[in-house]
Amino acid sequence: MEFVTQLSSAAPVVMIGLLATAVMLIDAFVRDSTTIAFWTSLIGLLVVAGAGIATVSASGTVFSGMLSVGGTAALFDVLLALAGILTLLAARPYLRREVREYDEFYSLLLFALAGAIMLAHSAHLITFFLGIELMSISFYVLAGYFRSQPRSIEAALKYFLLGAFATGFLLYGIAMLYGSSGALSYTAIHEHLQKGSALPTLLLIGVGLLLVGIGFKIAIVPFHQWVPDVYQGAPTVVTAFMSTVGKAAVVIGLIPLFQALQPAVETKVQVAVAMLSALTILLGNIVAVVQSNIKRMLAYSSIAHAGYLLMGFVAQSERGWAGMLFYAAAYVFMQLGAFVVVAIIERENEHRLELSDYAGLSRRHPVLAALMSIFLFSLTGLPPFAGFFGKYYLFTAAIAAGYTWLAIIAVIGTMISAYFYLGVLVAMYFREPHESLAVAHGSTAMWTLWLSCIAVLALGIFPTPFLQFLERFL
After folding, report:
1. What's residue 101's pLDDT?
2. Which of 92, 176, 216, 419 is the most exposed place for a label (fewest CB within 10 A)?
């Protein structure tokens, strides 16, 4: 009876694993299974989202303290499942247009989501590692999904090699944390550290190695080198999925871990992370200014957004953690929407990916241009969009923690980002079109854009209820 109770509390984690396995078996045993796999994935993710809503009120851990249930983890089950649904709706017309709708796409996407959801529920270093690696391995394959394109193969190879290297740091960090605390569960680690670690140097080295491994996953400086080439070489819908779900999952998995490590995080660790945050914000935004390829521009801007997210860790406060979660949720919708617009405009063999290709878009496709404008305004951090309030919470949390200089640098970075984001708007609204541009407005990808737009506006206009919910469970 207790096992059934635990199983129902962890229903989203169990369901997404079963769904991914079921779609993989459909791919293996059913010929021409893409349509069945698509609808099974779509309906299954709706069920997972429903399970997330149903388990929000649960609390505690299950399966011998391996997984947490309820609260923010359940909320992010809904968010991640919704991100998966939006990606599916955008991916199908994109893959069909490129004549590359291979059967395994849907099972790979679901396994990546299974890793992300496990990461969101992790309450133990083993499940943390399993979640992050299951997600990463699926991303490696998805990055090379266009197997006949050299750039896609190059992206997958670079991502895999650097990812494997980062995994080594992550494992060494976990080993050293275990050696210094004698525990792997977050609760046990926290209780041990409150009494004081017998091996403080080993503990700090473990935290440092853990930050290196995690830094690669969310692309902070100096572990960001893979991002531009991988994001540019991967299929655009895959880039949209990796850049949003990957960051959001690592953030939600990172917060309970570092809350457990909080007694051991000294001021010098916070200062070091603050410096990394500042460098990440500045480098990402400055290099994005000179990019003419819009996928590379969004790739470098995603590096800068990782720097903003780090500000919540620097603050080491409830407002900082809540700000990280709020910004991660907002980032999913605004970044996913921007990349889907790029996917709609893009054509085979990476055509129409230059900034000049967006000239006069407002005259040819005003709805598409307006939606892209909303996503870019939100990424810039302008009110009343979700990105503004995400940055506001993070900036004020950093100031309250005594890191006013970091908030100033973040504001400077935001001003730099306004230059290249608004540059896209200038091209869309104030330049003459060079050629006609056929866009399938009736495709399911437009559902992704409209739903993402609604989410960006809703989080921007009504941020308080969502933030209060986050703070209640932190």
Report:
1. 75
2. 419
Q: Which of 334, 134, 97 is CA-nearest to residue 217? A: 134
CA–CA distance from 31 to each of 19, 37, 98, 116 (Å)?
Answer: 19, 11, 20, 29
Contact call for residues 378 and 391 (beta carbons, < 8 A): no
Name the helix (H) or strand (E) containing 449.
helix 445-461
Statement: the pTM of the whole predicted model exceeds 0.70: yes
Is the confidence at residue 441, as pLDDT, over 60? no
Average pLDDT over residues 107-114: 94
> How many Å apart are CA 319 and CA 321, to the nearest integer?
6
In a domain, 55, yes or no: no
Please, is 108 exposed, middle or buried when counting C-beta atoms within 10 Å of its C-beta (0-12, 13-18, 19+)?
Answer: buried
User: 252, 120 in Cβ contact below 8 A?
Assistant: yes
Total residues belonging to the chain:
474
Q: Is the pLDDT of residue 396 over 90?
A: yes
Q: Is 270 domain-assigned?
A: yes
pLDDT at 308: 94
CB 244 within 8 A of CB 301: no
**Amino acid at site 368:** L
At residue 173, what is the residue type? G
Position 437 scores a pLDDT of: 62
Tokens coding 416: 């730099």
Of the ranges 109-118, 178-187, 218-227, which is most confident?
109-118
- Whether the Cβ atoms of residue 227 and residue 284 lie closer than 8 Å to each other: no
Respond yes or no on whether the N-terminal peptide bond of residue 222 is cis (omega within 30° of 0).
yes
> What's the number of domains the chain is made of?
1
d(CA 157, CA 159): 5
- Cβ-count burial of 1 within 10 angstroms (0-12 exposed, 13-18 middle, 19+ buried)? exposed
- The answer to whether residue 217 sits within a structural domain is no
- Residue 244 and residue 231 in contact, taking contact as beta carbons nearer than 8 Å: no
If you average pLDDT over residues 294-305, what whole number do you get? 91
Q: Is residue 447 part of a domain?
A: yes
Q: Which token pair is 415?
A: 């001003």
Question: Which whole number is the average pLDDT over 303-309?
Answer: 93
Give the C-alpha separation, 128 to 181, whole Å: 17
Range of the structural domain that residue 323 is part of: 266-474
Burial letters for 409-445: b for 16+ Cβ neighbours within 10 Å, e otherwise? Answer: bbeebbebbbebbebbbebbbebebeeebebeeebbb
pLDDT at 28: 86
Which range scores top for mean pLDDT: 201-205, 223-227, 367-371? 367-371
